[in-house]
């Protein structure tokens, strides 16, 4: 019997999402615990992971429930934390162009980890590319939702000391960066990101360097895209 296209795509995508599965379960659990500690029902943590699904933005949002935080502050801080997704989206316009209604979900579900998988994963032979990418995005969000649910429910049953638990997100970013570094022969994009971030950190400070560094990285990578592609082709030929 011929296998359903989406079933085939999910089966093909799952092995590539295992690193995200392990990471999202733990940081999702950490988010759920932090959220529940504020006194909210565990269902709100799950709903937030379904409708917001912003990773670091959700971690930041936990602190917005404190008194004295204005609505304008919330908008500005969330915008600054998630501005990088604008640049992610620009580089995926061609991949998403012909995905029809699925394109809206692909835009919504574009996290750092999903974005990384889109670029380091080759579509297996015989699998529809659009269904494969959609499966990666959907699986990643399901991992996050499950982790959030486990954390929020556990937080209602077991007392936790949440000091330092938000470092889980930073740790996952480091792991993904190292994995990309080891699997890619072209390190120019990574070195560009490191250099631009460090320079902007020194110039603008730790509270304001994200947006300038993203702009610098985008300009540099777009300007040198042809050179980098030629270098990658030459390395692959070797």
From TrEMBL:
The keyword Repeat does not apply. Keywords: Cell membrane, Membrane, Transmembrane, Transmembrane helix, Transport. It comes from the Bacteria. It is a multi-pass membrane protein. One of its GO terms (cellular component) is plasma membrane. It is found in: Cell membrane. InterPro entries: Brnchd-chn_aa_trnsp_permease. The keyword Membrane applies. This is AzlC family ABC transporter permease. The lineage of its organism: Bacteria, Bacillati, Bacillota, Clostridia, Lachnospirales.
